[in-house]
# Entry
Amino acid sequence: VKASLAEWARVLETTPMDIWLELPTLKPPLVFAGIYRRWRTPDGEEADLVAFHERTRAAAAAHKRILLMGDFNLDRDRLRDPAYYRRNLANLNAEALEEEMGFAYLGPAGPTFHSFGTFNGERRAACLDHAYGLGLDSSPATVSILPHASSDHSPILATIAAQDRQVKGLKQVYLRNLGKVHPAALQASLSSRALDGVLEPEDPDDA
# Structure
């Protein structure tokens, strides 16, 4: 399976914020970037975003078709909301990707985040998970929001019409089967990881 996976996808670059893969078996080839933009100080978050845009510019100069997907932690629906405290970062991202580099926002349309707790007396909902495409005009993507799993973020799925050379030994999985999770094994796995930084925030927006 590892050999088949290496044939199907080649890792181009990894950083704490993103991983870049080339999918050479697709016709034409596609570069995919999975993103998780973490919470930091405002200056640190802007520096992370600017560095991500530099990597994206380099990828766009070298590849014709690119799909960006992931948790940007920026509310797409509040770009023009003066009360949104991350509006400047959200607009910085939209301007760099869409206006400067020519990426198209593919979706989703609707909130992907639903807070477990309340903040100022209300439960938050926001469109924090995005998909952007470059050079996909001939094979447009559709982006769907999948059912909730164990996270306050709903996973998103992008579907692209493309020809793929068959690679043996790979299996496509679309939904998580939590019924097969063994509680003791899951608890042991979580206990071995340093989760204080993840579980410490009290503001649901920082979770």
Notes: The longest strand covers residues 30-36. The chain has a mean pLDDT of 83.
